[in-house]
Amino acid sequence: MKWSLSQLKSTREAPLQFDEALDLKHPLMMRYPEIIDVQPVHVKGLVTSDKDSVLISATVEATLTLPSSRSLTPVAVPLAFQMTEYYVPEGTDLSRFDEEQDTVIILPEDDILDFDVAVEDNILIHIPMQILSEAELNGEPLPTGKGWEVLSEDDLANQAAELKTVDPRLAKLKDLFPDQEDKD
């Protein structure tokens, strides 16, 4: 969805409502190659304008298919979030916008507001760092292979504690400085 900023400013009487399904599969996969698939993205919201800015408030719902961060198994990841952005022309005094708000202030180029790119940016921001399949969430064994295995943090800590035992060949050195205690 693209709008002209001057066109949106002329609709001050009533807010512009939208309820659209966006096909963002190709641009999202180009920007974030780990994405396996993207279902149509549903956006619903309002566009309001005042004398020098345009406010877009929208709810975004998307389902991405991403690899599990543990086993690379494809996992459907639903995303649902609210986004609020102000679009102001270049040269506008930005002091009236509160820095504490969760709104983004954007200066559109060439008077064209490309809402698809804004939705893409927000989707990429909301992708979780850790993605696990249902089986991984339910505690199934971690992946293993020939000569390797994935360890949980607890297993790694236990393994490190076992390795801290003193080599019997070096045990006599411990008595070399009896006044020093073991500080581990």
Question: Main traits of this protein?
Answer:
six-stranded mixed beta sheet, 184 residues, alpha+beta, two-stranded antiparallel ribbon, 32% strand, single chain
Structural category: alpha+beta
* Whole-number total of structural domains: 2
Count every beta strand, where a strand is a DSSP E run of 2 or more residues: 10
Helicity level, as a percent range? Answer: 10-25%
In whole angstroms, the N-to-C terminal distance is: 61 Å
Largest sheet: 6 strands, mixed
- Tally of DSSP helical segments: 5
Radius of gyration: 27 Å
Descriptive overview:
This is DUF177 domain-containing protein. This protein has 184 residues and is α+β, with helices and mostly antiparallel strands. The protein has two domains: 2-137, no CATH class; 144-176, no CATH class. The chain is 21% helix and 32% strand. It has five helices and ten strands; from the N terminus they run βαβαββββββααββα. It has helices at residues 5-9, 25-31, 115-125, 134-137, 153-163, and strands at 2-4, 16-22, 37-38, 41-49, 54-67, 74-87, 104-106, 112-114, 144-145, 148-149. The strands form three sheets. Strands 2, 3, 4, 5, 6 and 7 form a six-stranded mixed β-sheet that branches. Strands 1-8 form a two-stranded antiparallel sheet. Strand 4 and strand 5 form a beta hairpin. The model has no long low-confidence stretch (mean pLDDT 80).
